[in-house]
Amino acid sequence: MQEEINYDADVIVIGAGHNGLAAAAVLAGEGRRVIVLEKNGYVGGMTGTREILKGCRNEVGASVLFPLSQEVLDALDFEGNGAEFIDLPVMAINLPNSGARPLLFYSNPLRQLRHLLFDHGPRAMLGFLRMIRFCKYPAEVMDRFTAGRLPRSMDELLADAPSEAAREQLELVFNGSAMDIIDRFFPDPEKHRTMRALMSFAAIQSTYKGPYSPGSAFCLVYTLALNGSGGLMRRVKGGMGSLPEALERSIRAKGSEVRLKQTVKRIVVEDGRATGVELRSGETLRAKVVLSNLDKPATFTRLLEDTPLDEAFLEDIRGIEQKGAWVHLLFKLDGLPEYAGEWSHLNRDVHTRFGGAMVPDPEQMQASFEACDRGELPEHVPVAFQIPTVEDPSLAPPGEHIASAYAFFFPCGAPDQERGKLRDEMAERVIDRISSYMPDFRERIVDRAVFSSDHFAAMHGSTGGDFTHGLIHPDQMLAARAVVEGSAHATPIEGLYLCGAACHPGPGVTFLPGYGCAKEVLEKEFS
């Protein structure tokens, strides 16, 4: 029967997020006819950029590019397709509670070492270097930046540990809290206050945990994993959406298609094999292979709702924890705000106003998570902030700036009828926190937009509005990311593959899930 099908394409990709486009670009580059279907009128999904506030290019999702593997950069050729990278003299600034010193991350390594040594002291510098060294082995076996590697289970990694010390190290990462690690290297709550706050924040952004919660150590190490290819954090001119837009141009130039405002209603399965998709319009498109860039619940319980699947498998899919305990705020400002008070010396370098984090002490962060879990607003709001127009003025009209903030821990489990009021109250707390460092921030706001996870669910089709496609909890990572043994992307349905952040190595703008999926599909379906 398969030979009788009149195919519209070799491959259909559902969703034009960055991983879906990466997979399509690689496949199109190998001569395959690809159709990418996207329900929105823009590409990029949660790595997209579009006008939300009048006259601005706003990012609703990812905002900073962490180092990409050289293999991915070579394969996707962003710059050759019109993307432009912006180097960041100050990649991030981390502002602790009053009375502690800010921590800056400079792109210049000598300047970075001087800052750690003279502003935070030799013990803090040594603690930072030792912590990075401690994370090196467990981060390497996670394969976060390795293309095409089959994910291994926690039990396999423990069994393969080269020594008892290495095994104990992995057990701590898999089972312990972030503070179990942080206390080893930054034990003094006062002298190491800034470092403790920053590392705690690194452990909670992609979890539903506090820094003292068991299991948060995994996310800390995952966040601190270093890319073997080296490199620094950068911005993309025109916003992060410029990368998906470059991939869209690449795909079209290779003779394949990206169709916008095309909502997939269901995946068509015939004789146990995916053979295409049915659109909401009623049109059916046929392909030899179908790739889903959506998360697992969206793929298996929505797009395959009418397809019989093993009940135990579906129970596992429904059990994936996907929550978005945050709010995302966008601001249009009539000028560049300034630091004041104990932070005013930072104004000497305009790059310090680009962005970073405003983080409370670990104990306050844990209390805020526990309040969120009870359905209450946090008293101490950790905030990741950015004013990208410091480095890229093209994002706003002349003389104006845009800013953005992610704030944790929003009570995402609150009843629907309470969420709007809670969201507005949370936004005010975020503005208050930013204004405690930059007192003129509030008065400079001329427009704003506030999103929470339910908006992300509606805009991007992500279950629970979760941008990680499954929170970074130890039992949801590594081999747990796969659904078929011996494959990183295959599914129980022949011809259907997953290519998004739900796959190994997981979330983050690495393009590796999409790139790896394309490589696997080429080997298994077209070799």
Folded structure, characterized:
The protein has helices at 18-29, 70-76, 109-120, 122-142, 154-159, 164-175, 178-185, 193-202, 216-224, 242-253, 296-303, 311-318, 362-373, 416-437, 441-444, 453-460, 512-525, and strands at residues 9-14, 34-38, 49-50, 58-59, 85-87, 90-95, 103-106, 234-236, 257-260, 264-270, 273-279, 284-292, 326-333, 355-358, 383-386, 401-408, 445-452, 496-498. It starts with 8 loop residues before the first strand and ends with a helix. Helix 6 crosses helix 9. A hairpin with a 7-residue loop joins strand 3 (49-50) and strand 4 (58-59). Strands 1, 2, 9, 10, 11, 12 and 18 form a seven-stranded mixed β-sheet that branches. It has 527 residues and is of the alpha/beta class.
Q: How many structural domains in the coordinates? A: 3
CATH topology of the largest domain: FAD/NAD(P)-binding domain
- What structural class do you assign from the helix and strand content? alpha/beta
The global form is globular
Strand content: 15-25%
Poorly predicted sequence stretches spanning 5 or more consecutive residues: none
**Helix run count:** 17
CATH class of the largest domain: Alpha Beta
CATH architecture of the largest domain: 3-Layer(bba) Sandwich
Work out the number of β strands: 18
Calculate the mean pLDDT score and round it.
Answer: 95
Spatial extent as radius of gyration: 23 Å
Distance between the termini: 21 Å
Q: What share of the residues lie within helices?
A: 25-40%
Largest sheet: 7 strands, mixed
The CATH superfamily of the largest domain appears as FAD/NAD(P)-binding domain
